[in-house]
């Protein structure tokens, strides 16, 4: 059952990647406009749409993520991301749940050559530091014992904090003025893998499976930039 | 175009490769203690093999069930009791008898999400009072559910 869920989740994610790659074909070079050379600046708020799609592929996992960035200097975008992630699963020998909030902060650098200042497409590479505050628990734990009889210990719960670093690469396309669609792929490095010696977290919100010291992530976001100033 | 197709196939391969991990769980998740018999002759410790060991655990509210029945052996392997802070066993070697009580405490640990939890016991001390066992030594105080063939936790001197 789990394997089927994995396969259907993987296929859905793969189809999602295909769709995004197809869309990404639009941005091959910056368009040139001679009429408008003013560039719009302002905070750009986004939500990760991939999180909502994952609910259909894996209903046991719920999550939401929002982001904000701002071009403070030419091609330099400080980024802040905030999210929530939870999981609830019934394993054969115990019930597991984990949930909590996470935040990431870092910087993106746009390396798409700018031919017109009024065009805001970007192709970025960047880094993040991520931190998650969450709890996880195991209930209805059963430990079979052939001689002394089955043992059912008290539920186990632990409050944890996870830290990780990310290398992020992505692309954002301005569909209409100030409205963007973008995707990013992330390579994540967990900094404190031994945070719980009793039970490795099945989910570190914002990071992924705690049993893997390295992991990949994918976001597909819709973003809106508040045009505060033009210059 | 060909390059793009190759990249897509590569992505598919990576995504699907996550599905082929199949974990096989050991049916026995008991945390078992390994004991060896020893004798001391002229100051030298040596292995001791008994001709007929019978052994059972003292289980409250349950009937006795033999773990060893007149076996010739140089030691024994027994599961520890997760319900109490001690495990008691009756040992009968030939016509001699003794009650061995092993005091311990325990903590949970996760073997894996597929295989579930097990108990990690920490041995504290041993008690026996009938004279068959003359002394003991704890070699490895940690007893978990992963059995290794060369593992030894305690020595019992006869």
Count of separate structural domains of chain B: 1
Chain pair forming the biggest interface: A-B, 33 and 36 residues
Amount of beta strand of chain B: over 45%
Oligomer: heterodimer
Along the chain, the helix and strand elements of chain B come as HEEEEEEEEEEE
Helical element count of chain B?
Answer: 1
Percent of residues in helices of chain B:
10-25%
Q: Which percent range fits the helix content of chain A? A: 10-25%
Q: Give the strand order of the largest sheet of chain A, numbering strands 1, 2, ... along the chain.
A: 2-3-4-5-6-7-8-9
Can you tag this structure with a few keywords?
heterodimer, A: 231 residues, mainly beta, Porin, eight-stranded antiparallel beta barrel, two-stranded antiparallel sheet, 10 strands, disordered N terminus, B: 158 residues, six-stranded antiparallel beta sheet, five-stranded mixed beta sheet, 11 strands, 10% helix, elongated
